[in-house]
């Protein structure tokens, strides 16, 4: 993937939708949990009591949603969109974890608002956003992430100055609308800085490990708010181990042998494996009227993991090259039933190492040179098997 390539609207909407979903789940659950616990703890300083209440500051405060929505459509490259989206996800989940582990409440009573339309807006805000979720301020963290992502898009000094002024006004509005204390703002700056450091630009591959880390964080927030402690720990650990495997590039982390996972792997990674099983069934149903496999070369066919009935339709003596590590092989194609089965585990979504691709291509050459037809498959038939098949056809004279 070219970091500088253009971004499709669908990709922008997917990133926006994912961030909206994670924010909606984590922020609202943390807020509700603090309200249920009737939290009164705060981190107000003596100086906070001297900060005036300016009702009109609600307008820049509410503008944060417009800033965020616009940013997803203003960024010009895939890499820029990826970096911004992942930084936001990380900031949201880390802040929510703090909110549920150390909930705080704003300490000062909000004065009455005389202007009717502003009073209505404050009433609406109070209905949606209770006076919790304080430290760190996500408003401030988001403003910092917006500035870092958008500043290079604006060449003229006046345009950058307007951007900086608008974001700064949005950030400090949290003080003058009595939404946050000073320490909350400092926490927001620290959180935003951490996310900038953790998610770097210029990657040619998706940062899959971070997405599973975010999923683990979401599980922690949801679990702490609604699940028993042991179930929460299990879900967090399971998804966290998947994140670690992707970070290490560990293709063998599921220990699939002879087309099956060990029982302890099936238990330890149940949420991850179940997700792939459901996705596979959804793909099979969605594409039920399309050909299951496609021919890429005279002796090479590719596709997804087959069902038991589909597997019986393969030619007699067909060799099976299984690239999928997340799903067990169809029983009819396992070594106990099918003598020409080989497993080459590849992580999904990320590009496989060049030496691994070369090894699989070499094995394909030997198999086809021996006169065998090969069925090469991954989980869904969209990515891994296509990559290997292209490498095979491009290397064949």
UniProtKB/TrEMBL annotation:
Pfam families: PAP2_3. Residues 72-196 form the Inositolphosphotransferase Aur1/Ipt1 domain. The keyword rRNA-binding does not apply. Keywords: Membrane, Transmembrane, Transmembrane helix. It comes from the Bacteria. InterPro entries: Aur1/Ipt1, PAP2/HPO_sf, Prot-tyrosine_phosphatase-like. The chain crosses the membrane at residues 12-33, 53-75, 87-104, 132-150, 157-176, 182-199, 211-242, 262-280. PANTHER family: OS01G0859400 PROTEIN, PTHR47216. This is Membrane-associated phospholipid phosphatase. The lineage of its organism: Bacteria, Pseudomonadati, Pseudomonadota, Betaproteobacteria, Burkholderiales.
């Amino acid at each position: 993937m070219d970091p500088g390539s253009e971004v499709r609207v669908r990709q922008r909407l997917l990133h926006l939708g994912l961030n909206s979903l994670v924010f909606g789940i984590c922020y609202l659950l943390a807020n509700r949990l603090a309200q249920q616990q009737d939290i009164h703890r705060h981190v107000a300083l003596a100086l906070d009591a001297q900060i005036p209440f300016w009702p009109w500051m609600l307008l820049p405060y509410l503008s944060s949603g417009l800033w965020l929505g616009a940013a997803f459509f203003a960024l010009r490259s895939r890499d820029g969109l990826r970096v911004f989206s992942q930084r936001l996800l990380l900031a949201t989940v880390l802040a929510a974890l703090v909110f549920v582990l150390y909930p705080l409440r704003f300490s000062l009573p909000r004065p009455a608002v005389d202007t009717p339309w502003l009073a209505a807006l404050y009433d609406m805000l109070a209905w949606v956003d209770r006076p919790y979720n304080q430290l760190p301020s996500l408003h401030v963290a988001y403003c910092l992430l917006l500035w870092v992502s958008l500043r290079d898009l604006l060449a003229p000094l006046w345009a950058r100055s307007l951007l900086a002024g608008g974001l700064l006004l949005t950030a400090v509005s949290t003080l003058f609308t009595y939404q946050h204390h000073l320490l909350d703002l400092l926490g927001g700056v620290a959180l935003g800085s951490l996310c900038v450091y953790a998610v770097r630009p210029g990657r040619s591959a998706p940062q899959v490990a971070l997405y599973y880390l975010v999923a683990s964080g979401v599980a922690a927030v949801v679990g702490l708010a609604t699940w028993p402690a042991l179930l929460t720990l299990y879900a967090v650990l399971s998804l966290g181990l998947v994140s670690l495997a992707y970070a290490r590039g560990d293709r063998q982390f599921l220990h699939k042998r002879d087309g099956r996972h060990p029982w302890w792997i099936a238990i330890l990674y149940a949420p991850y494996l179940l997700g792939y099983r459901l996705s596979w069934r959804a793909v099979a149903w969605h594409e039920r009227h399309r050909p299951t496999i496609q021919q890429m070369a005279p002796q090479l066919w590719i596709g997804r993991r087959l069902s038991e009935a589909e597997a019986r339709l393969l030619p007699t003596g067909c060799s099976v090259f299984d690239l999928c590590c997340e799903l067990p092989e169809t029983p009819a194609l396992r070594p106990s039933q099918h003598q020409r089965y080989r497993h080459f585990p590849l992580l999904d979504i990320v590009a496989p190492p060049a030496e691994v691709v070369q090894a699989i291509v070499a094995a394909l050459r030997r198999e086809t040179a021996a006169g065998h037809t090969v069925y090469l498959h991954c989980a869904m038939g969209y990515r891994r098997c296509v990559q290997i098949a292209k490498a095979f056809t491009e290397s064949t004279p």
